[in-house]
C-alpha cells in the first residue's frame, strides 16, 4: 500500500507560456501531499504530468520504479485519479457509473455499495448523473477514483462546489484513505483544507515551487504578528496601547483588537486585569503564508 513519487525538473510550455518551469519534489510512501497556488500557477499541469496524462517536455517522473507516461497497466491499476472536471457515461445512474468503473478493474459488485456509503450518495444511487448537483457529481467522481482500492490517489480540487458540511465530511473520507497507508496528492484552493489534511505542501506560482514544507513550519517561518481580540467594554483602548508588547490597537464596535509579537506578555497582563472573558487569539495561518508568497492581486 502506498507509493513513492519523485518529480525532477518538470517543464511544460504552451506557446510562449512556461506553465511548469523546472518543478521538483518527492512524496514519501503514505504521505498526504498538497500542491497549492493561485489560478494559472501550474498545479493541474504538474499533476497531469505526475499522473501520466501529459508527457513532460523535459524532466522526469517516477512512481516507485514506474514511469507514469508509459501507461503501464501494472501502475495504472495502482492509481486513482479524480480530475478537476468530472465526466461520466451518459444516462447511467450513480450506481451504474460505479459498477462500470469497477468492472474495468475487475472489482466485485459489492464494492459499489461501500463507496456510495463512503461518499454519502446512498440516497442518490438510482439517480442519473445528469440529475445530480455539482457537489454530488464531485463526490461520485471521487468514488470512481477509489472504486478499485488504489495505492496512490490524485485529487484535483476534490471539494470544489461542496457546501461546508459536505467538505468536512469528505475530509474524513480523505483522511481515512491516507490513514490506510495510501499516498495522496491533492490540489486545492482552500488553505484550511490543506492545513487540516496535508503532511507537507508545495506553494506554486508562475510554474515554480516557491516554498515546500509542513504547514506548521511554513506558518512559523512567516513571523507574523498575533491578533488578540477582547469583548467590548472589557478594556479601555488607551490602557491597551500602554501595555508592554502592544504594537497596535484597533478600537471597533465589536471590541478591541491588539496586535502583538509578544502574545504571552499581553495575555498575562489581560489575565491580571481580569479581561479574559470573550477573548480570542488569532495567529498566522497557511492562508497568510500563501498571500505573502503569491501576492493579493486578483487572478482571473
From TrEMBL:
InterPro entries: AAA+_ATPase, ABC_transporter-like_ATP-bd, ABC_transporter-like_CS, ABC_transporter_ATP-binding, P-loop_NTPase. Keywords: Antibiotic resistance, ATP-binding, Cell membrane, Membrane, Nucleotide-binding, Translocase, Transport. Residues 5-231 form the ABC transporter domain. GO terms for cellular component: plasma membrane. The keyword Translocase applies. It is a peripheral membrane protein. GO terms for biological process: response to antibiotic. It comes from Aeromicrobium ginsengisoli. This is ABC transporter ATP-binding protein. It is found in: Cell membrane. The keyword Membrane applies. One of its GO terms (molecular function) is ATP hydrolysis activity. Its main location: membrane. Belongs to the ABC transporter superfamily.
